[in-house]
Amino acid sequence: MPGQCAEFIPLEFPKRRLVPPGWSCLLAEVVVVENESVAGELVARSIRALIAGKPDAVLGLATGSTPLPIYRALARSLATDPLDVSRVRGFALDEYVGMPAGHPESYRAVITREVVEPLGLTAQNIHVPNGDPSAIQTAGREYEHAIVEAGGVDIQILGIGRTGHLGFNEPGSSFSSTTRVKTLTEETRADNARFFDSPDDVPMHCVTQGLGTVLRARHLVLLAFGAGKATAIAAAVEGPITASQPGSAIQFHPHVTVVIDEAAASKLANLAYYRHAWANKPTWQGI
Ligand code: GLP
Question: Mind listing the pLDDT tens digit for each residue in 123-146?
């Protein structure tokens, strides 16, 4: 099962970003915020504006603790100022392999509980990779085709693991990889054990969008909070581009926003410049 070859889908970088002449979009924009709640509000505003302009927008959904403030801020915003989200589509980054149907920690269940229900999205429009072992041979290819058929992901929300993983692309994942089965590192299994009754219950395998899949999204928004993420963030934003640090794949992408708190930003060498650029950002320019 692990190690099966994914179908090769060539990388196609987004071409739609309009960059005024003379403006550089080669570096990720790093936004350092006071806390998770401010981060959630900032990204939720951007997603809301996206949906207002494109009612069938395609959201790239991440699990884990990090993106929760975004979903909660968006749910609050939609409750006080409703917007038609019935046509919004979504693709989760990953799923565990072999979780019993309906297990509360399957990513299908998490996305339903934390995103679909609070935001009032249409359940049929929200896709999660199929982690059923009997479907595993075709799960990756079918997921890739579904994303392409939807026209690609407009905004991809990302957390980052302590190993530097995006989705479940553990160190060593190819930058061209597409949705496929991966084996989780023991570090990641230990980190995710907090969601399970026992560490042994954390699945060994997952189906995850590849780094190549993630890089095809039109806008990447990577969030991280806490000192435990500082090394992974520094490697992703400023480190050498290497498959040993999957997060460093973001340096290939022309439109990346990194939203982090002070603790997660603490190992960035160019922090003063990021603060300067954010403080002087033109008001007409969103994230
Ligand atoms: C999980 C998910 C990732 C997530 C990461 C960090 O295992 N597969 O998508 O970004 O680990 O999780 P957290 O946000 O809980 O720190």
Answer: 999 999 999 999 999 999 999 999
